[in-house]
Each structure stands twice: as C-alpha cells, then as structure tokens.
Write a structure and sequence with these properties.
Layout lengths: L1 H20 E10 L10 E4 L6 E2 L5 E8 L3 E5 L6 E4 L5 E6 L3 H5 L2 E3 L4 E3 L7 E5 L22 E4 L9 E4 L12 E4 L2 E2 L20 E7 L2 H4 L10 E6 L8 E13 L8 H11 L2 H6 L7 H5 L3 E14 L3 E13 L6 E11 L2 E2 L4 E16 L2 H10 L34 H7 E19 L6 E20 L22 E24 L2 E20 L11 E21 L3 E12 L8 E12 L12 E15 L12 E3 L5 E4 L2 E4 L1 E3 L9 E14 L4 E13 L2 E5 L9 E5 L2 E17 L3 E18 L10 E3 L12 E3 L7 E4 L2 E3 L5 E6 L14 E2 L7 E11 L2 E11 L2 E4 H6 L19 H4 L17 E3 L2 E13 L8 E15 L12 E2 L6 E11 L1
Parallel strand pairs: 1-7, 13-16, 49-53
Antiparallel strand pairs: 1-4, 2-3, 2-5, 5-6, 8-9, 10-15, 11-12, 13-14, 15-16, 17-18, 17-54, 18-19, 19-20, 20-22, 21-22, 22-23, 23-24, 24-25, 25-26, 26-27, 27-28, 28-29, 29-30, 30-35, 31-34, 32-33, 35-36, 36-39, 37-38, 39-40, 40-47, 41-42, 42-43, 43-46, 44-45, 47-48, 48-51, 49-50, 51-52, 52-54
Helix pairs in contact: 7-8
Length: about 1000
C-alpha cells in the first residue's frame, strides 16, 4: 500500500513539469517568393488530432506542443514544410510553391471529379481569382471573353439575360443553351414571367468556379441535355479553422455610352420644309427635343455582399452569405434588384467515410420593366420639333398626335416620355433552391463509394402591367368625338410557378493496382419539370380572358456509367454511356443511347521528357462522343389533342353559349436530335508551367435536327410545327495561352489570351421540292409587313441574311430602287434574293491582363470578334424621307442615314427593306473592363485587410459599324436597350 502512495506522490510531483513541458506555439506563414502572408494554411502536430489554420495575416497559434513534436505546415499549391519543435516561442515558415501540385487542379467532369492532368476530354475551368473584375450583376459576365469556344453576349437592360453559346450551339430550332449544373443540381432553362434569366438570382460573389465541358466525350455523361455543352458552377464553401468575414461594397455610375443617330430638330425642319406638303409643314412644333435624352439618364448601381465562413465547433465547415444588388437602368423607370441568402454546410463524419454537402439559396427579386422596343422606338422616331408636354392635353399634359376631330389616331408613335411615366410594369420573384449530397465510403469496402443527391429548384414570380387612365394606350371604348369618351386605363396581373426536382444516385469504385488506376461510376438520374401560370387578362376591358395555364410535366430519366483507366499516369482512357428517356416523345422514340470515349497520352510523363527543363507538360487527347437534344417548346407534340376554344371563339345557339373545340396538329414520329463530335487536343506547358496552353480541333455534326418548319398544305392539321429534318456541321479550332510574363517579389504580370475559329454549315434540310430556297427564320423585321431577313439553306451558315444585291453609282452611293437581276429573268423579284453573310463571327478573341506591383493591382479585359455581320434594321426602317412624311396628320423623325442615301420611297414594295446595303460588317474590338486596386498593408490595420478599387466597364469599342452597338446576338439591330458605360468604385474588407 505504501508503494502505491509513493508512486502517486511521485506522479503528483511530476505533474507541474509535465504541464510546463507542453507549450503554445505562435507563428506566421508566408509565401517564399513574395513574402506575403498566406491565410488558411493548415498547421498541426504530426500524428495528433486537431490543429489550426492561419488567419488573414498568416498568423497561427498552436496549443499543447511538446519538445520533439513535428509541426506540419501545408497548403494547396505549396510544398509541405515540417519543423521540429524545440521550445521556440515563435515560428516563421516560408512555403515554396509546388509546381507539380499546381498541375493537379481538380475539375468537375459530371458525377465526379478528375485531376486536370488526367482529364481526357476538352474541359476548361476558371476560378474566382481569374473572374472578370468590376460590377458583375449576373454570373454570366464573370467569364465573358475568358474561355476559348465560349461566347457570352449580354444585353443592356438591368439584370438582362446573357446568351451563352459553346462552340456555336448545335441546333436550328431546339434550344442552343448549355446545360448548367449548380452545385450538382441541373437547372431548367425556363424562366418565369417577370424574371430575367436562370442565373440572375445567383450572387456572383458566392461563386467559386466555372467548369465548362465542351466536347461530346466529356459531356456525354449528361446525355440528353449536353448537346450544347455543360457549365458546372461550384459555389464557395466553408473551411476548417477560425471564423473569416469578408465584406465587399461597390458603387457604379451608369452612363449612356451611345445613342441612335437621327435628324436633329433643325435638320428635320429642313427636311419637312423641303419635301413636305403645306399640311405637314404646319404640323411642326417650335421645340428642339432630343427624345433619347428625355428617356435615358445616369443611374447609380450598388452591390453589397457579406459572408462568414469557418468551422462550427471546429468540426462543421459552414459558410453564410447575404448580398444585395440594386441596378437601376439607364432607361428611366427600369430597374433590377436582387437580395440573396446562401448557406453551405460540409460536415465530414465517421472518420472521413461520410461526406455531406448541403447547399441552399433564397433569392428575392424586384424588377421594373418597360416596353423597351416601343419606348425606345418611339424616342428614335418621334418628331423632334414637338415638346414633351402640351398645355391642356387630356393625356396627362403630354403631347400626343390627335386627329382634327380630337380622336386619337391609330398609327403614330406615342409620346415616349408619357409611356415611361404612365405605364407601370413590375414583378417580384422568389427562388428557393437547394441540394444535398451524401457521399459514403463503405467501411467494409473502402474502394467503393455510394453517392446520393437530391435537389429542388422552385422559382415563382408575380407581376402586373398597369397603364394609367391618362395614358394614350389606355382602354378608350369610345372615340373622343362621340361626347362620351372615357379612359379606363389597362391592368393585368399574372403569377408564374416553376419547379424542378432532381435525384441522382450512383456508385463509384476506385482502385490502384500498381501502375493501373481504375475509376468506375454507374448510376441513375431522375428529373421532373413542372409549370403553372395564372393570367388575369385585361381587367378594365369587357372580356379580360382570364386563364390558368398548366403545362404538362416534363420527365427525364437516365441510366449512366463511366470508366476511367490510367496506366502509369501516361496513358488515360475514358469511356462513358448514358441511356436517356424523355416524356416529350412517344414510347417508340422515347429512349436514346449516347456514349463517348477519349484517350489521352501524357507525353511529359515519358522518360524522354520526364526531367525536361523546357517542356514541363505535354498531353495529347483524342475524343469522340454522342449527345442528344429534346429541349423544344412543344411538350407532347406526338399526341393527338383537342383544345377548347377561349371566350373569343364561342358560339350562341338558342340562347346557349357553346365552346368550340379544335384538333391540334401533331407529329407522332418526332424523335431525338443527335450530335456526334470528334475532338483532337493538345495541352502543353513550358518552363515549369510558367507558360501553359491548349489547342483543340473539333468537328461535330447534328443529325435529325429538331426544327420548327412550315408543313405542306394538307399534310397536317397545322401550317407549321416541329419535325426532324436535316444535318448541321460545325468545325472549329480553339486556342488558349496563359503566361506569367513577369514574376518577382514586387512585380507580377500575368496575361491570358484565347482565340476561336468557327465554321458552321447546314448539310441537309430533309425532303424539299425543286426551287426550294430554305426556311425563313427569326422574327419579322421592322418595315413593311411580315418581312424576314434570315434563312436556313443547305450549304450555308444558319441564319444567313437573305437579301437583294444593291446597285451603286460611281460615287458608291446606293441607287434607290436598283438591284442586281441575279437570275437574269429581266425582273426583280424574290428569285433575285441571295444569301449574304451571317451574324455569327468567324473568329473571336479574348485577352485578360493582371499586373501587380507591391500593393497595387491593375486588370484589363479585352474581347474581339471578326467576320460577324449585322442587319441595320434602324436605318432600313427609318432611313428614307417617306418614313417621316408618310401621312398628312402626323410627322416622324428619320435616321441620319437618309443624309447618306437620299432614299425617298418604299421602292418596289418591300425590296428596300431587304437590301444588302443594310447588312454591315460588325467586327469589333472591345475593352470591356479596366480596374485599378490598392491593398492596405496589414501592418497598419492589424486585423483587417482592405482593398480599394476603381474602374470602368464598357470602356470603348473599335468598329466600322456606325450603329448603336455591333454586338447583337441575333444579328438584327433594332430598337435596342443600349449597354451602359459604368464608372465603378469598390472596397473589400477581410477580417
């Protein structure tokens, strides 16, 4: 017993020394090359649980450290450093960049990830630090001009949708939008009424990276929705370690960069006095009004976001973000406002066997719209000699054209300022989306993982359109001259509810057998799209036509599999397969089979290049795959249907109201559009990847094209509908290069450039008759009646301009009414129209430059486009004198192009509207963004890092085109909402 007491006494006496032997170590971690502190570095005792991470100053504090402990300091992209603790009170560690580790960037490839160096398909990734700078209201602008083969064309309206095309798209009438995967949830391309785009509800500040799957071998795993490429968006997640707070605030001053050239008041008076009748001359006013100045103004945009990330209880990584953007448009009474809240939880349980990723987002939107085409069109064409206001006007005091009787005429444009102030178009939207992912590595078989994902995206909107009882566009059941005139205004409202549900379950098996690596995936996908809409109709009118529209559910189901084989990191093989079913087609045509394969040779891993000082990486890739397309507007076109008529098609017999019923057209043979694509690529790097780049050649062919085309008389119950017709061939070359031109302690300069060449031709349009010119496509242009300017024809690019060939005099001035008789039949008619250029560019380029000197940073983002043409519909519609003098009771302005042509009439019917004179070269070079930033040294602010920035967006455009903007997605320049030039100021604070 005494022995036990002696031992306890000995232990008690030893305890203070034991406590004293455990110390708390403080230190800092910095970049070896630059000396800058590195936040988020993992610091722990080798073999011990727990640990810590550095704060934003690169500082850390590690407890319970004993003499002889190995301190491990590690961070992605740097070589791990191990230091033995010998009682130091402070420790300074400098980490060296690990070029080999940087090669192992992980990219999303669909239902999994792969190291960039092991990717076999054409995959591009851009992360947050490489995003375009400035005020990015919607996420699409983050990558505009940054990725070869990806073209992003945004609009000028607040929160406007940007059209994204990967390698030019693949279809004629079906959707050409890429599939977008947001944190594992495939999004629908549908947008409810009153919202702007599917990405407008996402705060760009929450996005970590974009990964683009461009070729079919990479995208085939997504099968039915991957024909136009795939964009995988990954949002920011929480990290282990201390709490990190980031706050960013930006202010942008949006100014009008350009307006349409029309005659000034004095020029217009001269025109009317020269060519107008006495009655028309008497109509002129005494004002000099620039109507575009009246509808446009300078607006102030604010963009704020705060995020908090860290680990709850040092176990649960969490990130919470709240953001708000308020973006009034430069067109008065237009605006876009978005408030978002996002959260991500990423716990890892059961000794890293169960990984859980939970992402959620709640977004509220407020939009104010205008009838942009009508308002801007009125401002362009309204008589500049008239005042905005007129004393005694029954239309709110605004000037409006009236007949001598006082009645409101049907044809003249309405006062654009009155339209802005007397029409109220507003909408609110709520979007709730979330995705949960469970990734379980079996305890008894750790090579096998079971992954289950479930997601929902609910996008609802409601809105109204109101015209005041003083608006000239209000409902006026009786003419003013009757004596019982009244203006009831107009009002309609709507709600729109969209829902997208998704479920993925799959198995993933990985195994290393020496030099052989196996990665196999097999699973099932289920997706359901639902939509319901209510519209009140015009409630101030006698028959408002109230209606509830419930679209049929769209259901997609798929079985998929992929096998990755690697040998010694040199030879890589990927094979994938997907069987897709869609409810859009009949049972006989419902299922499609899509597969892909790719092989890559990592030449740099061969012995003869292994330690080459010049060539640091070299990989050759060859891929081939097929994908499908079924995304058309018709949900159940294969079914025979009967539709009940509306209140406008009812009949009364014997005092009883009967509804009509009509059979709808259908196509029971409609089936999958298929895309087959070959891709040949080279990835390279020089001088320890100081210079890296990629070259891709691709050749893809879409067959059984889904196209909305005219149907021969008597062949169906409709005149037009979807059919599988023809083939579309697209070939191209992509090139991208990135280089650290200068890399020193104080100065770094990185430049990234990309270029794309695209060649598209229609090879087949199905059965046609002799003399068939092609299918006229696109919206009707302004001018004349029912004129279309675009056509799809075999042997030509999609959407080619179909025009008459203008004749010119010796001074190269167009001759009014004179066109080339191309078929030589002695007359000018439709047979003389021909295909002349196209809207799609032959070449597109992007350049991104980042220069850092000490605490300053300077970025520029350039884009260029060559070989794209545009149809100048403003001048074709307004560039002749009769456009302003067509009636004796009102006047309209004409475009300044009249001074160049002297055109007077609508010659020969509609031929002037379709002249190739109005097809203009719209090639351009744009400086999209310039930003200068300064970061305050943390030696001044101990706990906070501050960065101040200033810049300009939409800086300038170099182009031959003298219209409003050479960049128009559909190739037709009409009454376009102009892109603003924005002067921005921002501050970013990190705690």
């Amino acid at each position: 017993m005494k022995t036990i007491y002696k031992k306890l006494l000995f232990l008690f006496l030893l305890l203070p020394f034991t406590v004293l032997a455990q110390s708390t170590l403080k230190g800092t971690v910095a970049d070896l090359a630059t000396g800058q502190p590195i936040p988020g570095v993992n610091v722990n005792v080798q073999g011990a649980p727990g640990g810590t991470s550095t704060d934003f100053d690169g500082k850390f504090q590690l407890s319970n450290v004993k003499n002889g402990d190995k301190i491990v300091v590690s961070f992605i992209g740097y070589k791990t450093s191990t230091v033995t603790f010998n009682g130091q009170q402070t420790l300074s560690v400098s980490l060296e960049e690990d070029t080999n580790q940087l090669k192992e960037v992980v990219v999303q490839v669909g239902y999994g990830t792969v190291k960039k160096k092991d990717a076999t398909g054409s995959v591009s990734q851009i992360s947050a630090k490489e995003f375009n700078k400035g005020i990015n209201v919607t996420p699409e602008t983050l990558i505009s001009g940054r990725i070869a083969g990806v073209n992003v064309v945004g609009g000028g309206a607040p929160g406007a949708k940007a059209d994204i095309r990967i390698r030019g798209g693949s279809s004629l009438s079906a959707s050409n939008d890429p599939l977008i995967i947001l944190d594992g949830l495939p999004l629908s391309n549908a947008v409810p009424s009153g919202a702007t785009s599917i990405l407008s509800t996402i705060d760009p500040n929450d996005i970590e990276s974009f990964t683009v799957l461009k070729d079919a071998s990479a995208a085939a795993i997504y099968g039915s929705r991957a024909a136009n490429g795939v964009i995988v968006i990954t949002t920011k997640k929480g990290t282990k370690g201390g709490v990190k707070v980031n706050f960013s605030s930006q202010v942008g001053v949006n100014t009008v960069a350009n307006t349409v050239d029309v005659l000034s008041a004095d020029q217009f008076r001269n025109l009317v006095n020269t060519k107008g009748s006495a009655a028309q001359q008497a109509l002129m006013g005494k004002a000099s009004t620039n109507w575009q100045d009246e509808i446009f103004h300078t607006a102030l945009t604010t963009n704020n976001n705060i995020s908090v990330s860290g680990a709850l209880f040092d176990k649960l990584p969490v990130r919470l973000s709240v953001g708000n953007v308020n973006n009034p448009g430069i067109l008065r009474n237009t605006s876009f406002e978005r408030t978002t809240t996002s959260i991500s939880l990423n716990p890892v349980l059961f000794d890293n066997h169960l990984k859980i990723d939970i992402s959620g987002n709640l977004a509220f939107g407020k939009n104010q719209f205008q009838d942009e085409d009508g308002v801007i069109g009125s401002a362009i064409s309204f008589d500049p000699t008239q005042s905005v206001y007129q004393s005694g006007s029954r239309y709110g005091g605004y000037f409006e054209w009236l007949e001598p009787t006082g009645n409101l005429p049907l044809l003249p444009a309405r006062n654009p300022v009155a339209r802005l102030n007397q029409e109220d178009k507003r909408a609110t939207s709520t979007r709730k989306w979330g995705n949960i992912r469970l990734d379980y590595k079996l305890h008894f078989f750790e090579d096998l993982r079971v992954v289950a994902e479930a997601g929902i995206d609910k996008f609802d909107s409601s809105g109204y359109n109101r015209q005041s009882t003083q608006s000239a566009l209000g409902y006026q059941p009786n003419p003013f001259s009757t004596g019982n005139w009244v203006n009831l205004g107009n009002y309609n409202s709507y709600t729109d509810n969209l829902q997208n549900k998704n479920l993925n379950t799959y198995f993933n098996y990985t195994k290393d057998l020496g030099k052989i690596k196996i990665d196999a995936t097999a699973g099932y996908n289920y997706q359901l799209f639902q939509k319901e809409k209510y519209q009140s109709g015009e409630t101030t009118q006698p028959t408002p036509n109230e209606d509830v529209i419930t679209d049929p559910d769209i259901n997609l189901q798929s079985f998929f599999g992929r096998l990755n084989l690697g040998y010694d990191s040199r030879y890589l093989l990927t094979v994938n397969y997907r069987r897709d079913g869609t409810s859009r087609f009949s049972k006989e045509n419902r299922w499609g089979n899509f597969m892909g394969g790719a092989f890559a040779w990592n030449v740099a891993e061969e012995a003869f290049l292994k330690d080459n000082a010049t060539i640091s990486s070299l990989k050759l890739r060859l891929g081939y795959g097929t994908t499908g397309q079924q995304d058309i507007s018709a949900q159940y076109d294969y079914l025979r249907r009967v539709t009940l008529g509306t209140i406008n098609t009812q009949y009364i017999f014997g005092g009883v109201v009967y509804s009509t019923a009509r059979p709808e057209g259908y196509n029971q043979n409609i089936k999958w559009e298929e895309l087959a694509e070959m891709n040949l690529g080279v990835d390279f790097g020089f001088f320890k990847d100081r210079i890296t780049g990629t070259i891709n050649y691709f050749d893809k062919k879409s067959s059984d094209l889904l196209a909305d085309v005219l149907v021969p008389d008597g062949a169906n119950l409709r005149n037009q509908g979807f059919n599988n017709i023809g083939d579309l061939r697209t070939k191209g070359v992509e090139f991208s290069l990135q280089s650290d031109i200068i890399k020193t302690d104080k100065l770094t300069w990185n430049v990234a450039v990309n270029a794309t060449y695209l060649d598209q031709k229609i090879e087949n349009l199905g059965q046609t008759v002799a003399g068939f010119e092609g299918y006229a496509v696109g919206d009707n242009i302004k001018g004349g009646n029912g004129n279309k300017i675009l056509i799809n024809t075999v042997g030509y690019a999609p959407n080619s301009f179909f025009v008459y060939e203008q004749l010119y005099d010796a001074n190269k001035k167009p001759i009014a009414g004179a066109y080339v008789d191309r078929n030589g039949d002695g007359k000018i008619d439709d047979g003389d129209r021909y295909r002349y250029h196209k809207p799609t560019a032959d070449y597109t380029f992007g350049l991104f430059s980042t220069l850092n000197y000490k605490k300053f940073d300077f970025t520029m983002n350039w884009r260029a486009s060559l070989g794209n043409y545009i149809f100048d519909n403003v001048n074709s519609n307004m560039g002749y004198s009769d456009a302003g003098l067509r009636r004796q009771t009102d006047l309209s302005n004409v475009s300044s192009d009249y001074l160049n042509t002297g055109f007077t009439f609508e010659d020969n019917g509609t031929q002037r509207y379709l002249s190739n004179y109005y097809v203009k070269d719209a090639s351009f070079v744009k400086l999209d963004n310039v930003t200068l930033g300064y970061t305050l040294d943390k030696s001044i602010l101990k706990t906070t890092s501050l960065r101040f920035s200033a810049g300009v967006q939409n800086v300038f455009v170099l182009t031959k085109y003298n219209g409003l903007d050479p960049e128009k997605f559909n190739g037709i320049d009409g009454n376009v909402y102009p892109r603003a030039r924005t002067f921005l100021f921002g501050v970013n604070a990190s705690f």
